[in-house]
Specification:
Layout lengths: L7 H51 L6 H8 L1 H34 L2 H12 L6 H12 L4 H9 L12 H26 L2 H9 L4 H29 L3 H6 L7 H10 L4 H32 L1
Length: 297
């Protein structure tokens, strides 16, 4: 009967059953958390903990004087602006070079596509330091490129291709080009070619097909590649340090100088925090643009 209250035995039996039901509902999540615990501990010890220590060094003494210097001093602000601009130039150069390469790989027969992908992957099998020294040999005043142009009579004096922004852009573009090719290739390979044929059948010109159908459909790959290349470019060190010859200073190079030359760990930590914040902001903006484009498509 509904008017009879539960006995103490019935209540005590219901409580363990409720706990067992809760455990069954959360058992899978607990097992996943247990499996991920080693990786989370690894990330905490090698990434998050050093980041916390870095931020603590940047505010040593409880003041923000290092951040004030990094964000108000004209010299350091200019270095940050130059870093962002160089990253933008490299991203644009990679996009212009990678787009036709990715298109060729997406339409090439199987054997040719395999050979093309192998050539794209070849730079990954060589150290960045070795590749940078290779560009120093190629771009020097008496390097292979200048010597070939002089011998052919195309120029009367060696071109300044090293120890300037041009050399840094060339070297960084070479290193980061594969990171732009593969996102574009992945999108182009999945594209429905019937849409292009339908547009051509309705009288659209080649330029109209590209501008109104093909390029908009590849925008997710464009934004993904630009995001990857831009974020990697902001923190580049070896290539600007060697090909820039001390005349092109990016934030990573400035951080190294503050530690190696001046032993100013606090200011270097503040510069690192500023660079990390700029990188995260750029990433969030580009990710939002990618998400908006995906929803629009």
């Amino acid at each position: 009967m509904t008017g009879i209250p539960d006995s103490p035995g019935t209540a005590s039996a219901r409580a363990p059953a409720g706990r067992r039901g809760w455990w069954r509902r959360h058992r899978e999540g607990a097992a996943s958390l247990a499996n991920a615990a080693p990786a989370m501990l690894f990330l905490f010890v090698l990434y998050l903990l050093p980041m916390i220590m870095l931020l603590a060094q940047s505010v040593e003494g409880g003041t923000l004087v290092h951040y004030q210097k990094a964000l108000t001093d004209g010299l350091y602000v200019q270095v940050l602006v130059d870093t962002l601009l160089i990253a933008a130039y490299v991203s644009l150069a990679c996009l212009l070079l990678a787009y036709p390469v990715a298109y060729f790989l997406s339409i090439a027969p199987g054997w040719w596509a395999t050979v093309g992908i192998i050539f794209v992957l070849l730079p990954f099998w060589t150290s960045i330091l070795v590749r940078t020294y290779g560009w120093m040999v190629l771009l020097g005043r008496n390097g292979i490129i200048n010597r070939a142009l002089l011998d052919s009579g195309l120029i009367g004096a060696p071109l300044p291709l090293l120890n300037n922004t041009a050399g840094v852009l060339i070297g960084m573009t070479h290193v980061l080009l594969p990171y732009m090719i593969f996102p574009l290739y992945a999108v182009m390979k999945r594209m429905d070619r019937g849409l292009l044929a339908a547009a051509e059948g309705m009288g659209a010109s080649g330029w109209q097909v590209f501008r109104r159908i093909y390029f908009p459909l590849t925008l997710p790959g464009v934004l993904a590649g630009v995001t990857l290349v831009y974020v990697l470019s902001i923190g580049f060190f070896i290539t600007p340090a060697l090909l820039g010859g001390g005349k092109v200073t990016m934030v990573a190079v400035l951080i190294e100088q503050q530690i190696r030359t001046f032993l100013n760990w606090g200011f270097a930590a503040a510069l690192s925090a500023v660079l990390l914040t700029a990188t995260l902001l750029v990433y969030l903006v580009l990710r939002r643009a990618l998400r908006s484009n995906m929803q629009w498509n």
